């Protein structure tokens, strides 16, 4: 084993007295480099141009290298740090003296002492083992475990490599997406258009429902005409396709491609909701001049219409997917198995929709209020004859099960959104089903 070391400068001693000192032979000092403002601005400008080009070429790698730079794994040591290099020479015995192993250290140096301790420890370990020195290799797994530990520098390096890989994949993926959009350009535009129209129609319907007695018949009729013309126009545009067959639960004639099946389901699901919104406008026309009890009845009817729509929408994709899975090109056994699994999954969702529909129908058939009863004159006087919601005198007062009294119109509107008393927060309305009495429509797409 050979070793060589270099230590940092120390105070003068007997060993360092003969150390030669090197000086500048010409004794000329080098002047510091000066930069002009113009050159510094040019450097900053070139650095900015280079950084912008690097960001446009590789944005993720540029950001990671800026905020988490990777330092060299083997940095150059400073002159102030002592260095020790050890070379293992095979075939040497542990009992050889230090000068035969190639050690050139000063006496009583820390390197010599640590080497002696390490050699004595290996000798003791080998004598306590099997006698042949094999137990000296017991320390190898510990070294391997240290090598497996990952430093933050290595983690940042791996992160930058992953960012470079993503930057190579993203352009090709975007190119494929661009080609896919071009192939289905009309379908994308139609889907975006009918979806935006449906969202806007839902907001209009909710605002008209909240107006109650202030609704204008001409406005409701105008919205109804626009909604129906929109539905008729979409189906007229695709009159040569078999899109409308699934509306009457008839499977398509030919096996639809996957994306065509998705488009057919999206169009039918959106158009059915648009037609239901037009029907809700008819209900708002009928209950335009209603009061208290009529508005509560209107909310129950709107809820029943929505749950009926949810049940029908759950059945709407079934003919399309049935024809899609029943493909004999995949084999009779495989097509029959996939079709049977789909119908089984569909049946579980249909059962839930049927239960919600019957719950809404039962709520409509009950003439009495399920969250309270009409208050007597004495109960109204005890409550102060002042509604806590509208801050006006009671109009058709209703007493809840928690003994608080409100106007029927006010409390009916309150329970369209809440289930507790406006004052004491006691649970008044059971959480049996969600109410759509505000005229809203479910905006989630039913794709399967």
Features:
448 residues; two-stranded antiparallel sheet; extended; mainly alpha; 13 helices; 55% helix
Summarize the structure.
Residues 1-42, 91-153 are annotated as: Disordered. The protein is mainly α and 448 residues long.
Question: Could you characterize what this model shows?
Answer:
With 448 residues, this protein is mostly helical. Helix content is 55%, strand content 4%. It has 13 helices and five strands. The protein has helices at 37-57, 59-67, 110-127, 140-148, 152-183, 185-211, 217-237, 258-286, 292-315, 318-325, 332-365, 377-382, 408-414, and strands spanning 2-6, 83-87, 372-374, 397-400, 405-407. The strands form two sheets. It has a three-stranded antiparallel beta sheet with strand order 3-4-5. The chain has a two-stranded antiparallel ribbon with strand order 1-2. A hairpin with a 4-residue loop joins strand 4 and strand 5 (405-407). The two termini are 75 Å apart. Mean pLDDT is 74; it is low at 1-30, 72-81, 92-96, 98-107 and 121-147. It is found in: Membrane. GO terms for molecular function: ubiquitin protein ligase activity; zinc ion binding. Residues 17-28 have a biased composition (Polar residues). Its main location: membrane. This is RING finger and transmembrane domain-containing protein 2.
């Amino acid at each position: 084993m050979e070793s060589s070391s270099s230590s940092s400068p120390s105070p003068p001693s007997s060993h360092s007295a003969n150390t030669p000192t090197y000086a500048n032979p010409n004794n000329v000092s080098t002047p510091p480099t000066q930069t002009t403002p113009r050159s510094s601005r040019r450097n900053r400008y070139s650095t900015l141009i280079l950084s912008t080009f690097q960001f446009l070429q590789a944005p993720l790698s540029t950001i990671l290298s800026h905020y988490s730079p990777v330092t060299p794994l083997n940095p150059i040591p400073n002159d102030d740090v002592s260095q020790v290099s050890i070379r293992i020479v095979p075939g040497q015995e542990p009992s050889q003296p230090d000068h035969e192993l190639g050690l050139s250290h000063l006496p009583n140096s820390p390197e010599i002492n640590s080497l002696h301790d390490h050699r004595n420890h290996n000798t003791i370990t080998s004598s306590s083992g099997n006698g042949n020195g094999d137990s000296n290799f017991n320390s190898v797994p510990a070294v391997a475990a240290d090598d497996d530990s990952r430093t933050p520098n290595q983690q940042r390096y791996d992160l930058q490599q992953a960012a470079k890989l993503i930057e190579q994949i993203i352009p090709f993926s975007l190119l494929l997406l661009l080609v896919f959009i071009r192939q289905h350009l009309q379908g994308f535009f139609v889907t975006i258009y009918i979806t935006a129209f449906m969202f806007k129609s839902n907001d209009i319907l909710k605002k008209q429902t909240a107006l109650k007695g202030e609704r204008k018949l001409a406005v409701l009729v105008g919205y109804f005409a626009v909604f129906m013309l929109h539905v008729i126009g979409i189906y007229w545009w695709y009159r040569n396709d078999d899109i409308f067959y699934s509306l009457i639960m008839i499977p398509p004639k030919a096996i639809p491609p996957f994306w065509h099946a998705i488009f057919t389901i999206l169009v039918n699901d959106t158009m059915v909701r648009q037609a239901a919104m037009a029907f809700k406008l008819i209900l708002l026309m009928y209950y335009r001049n209603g009061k208290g009890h009529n508005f509560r009845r209107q909310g129950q009817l709107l809820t029943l219409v929505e749950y009926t729509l949810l049940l029908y929408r759950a059945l709407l994709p079934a003919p399309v997917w049935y024809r899609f899975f029943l493909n004999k090109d995949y084999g009779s056994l495989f097509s029959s198995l996939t079709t049977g699994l789909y119908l089984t999954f569909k049946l579980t969702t249909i059962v839930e929709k049927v239960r919600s529909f019957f719950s809404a129908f039962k709520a409509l058939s009950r003439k009495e209020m399920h969250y309270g009863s009409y208050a007597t004159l004495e109960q109204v006087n005890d409550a102060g004859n002042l509604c806590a919601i509208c801050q006006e005198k009671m109009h058709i007062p209703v007493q809840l099960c928690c003994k608080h009294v409100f106007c029927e119109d006010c409390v009916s509107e309150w329970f369209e959104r809440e289930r507790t008393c406006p004052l004491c927060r006691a649970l008044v309305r059971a959480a049996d089903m969600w109410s759509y009495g505000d005229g809203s429509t479910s905006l989630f797409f039913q794709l399967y």
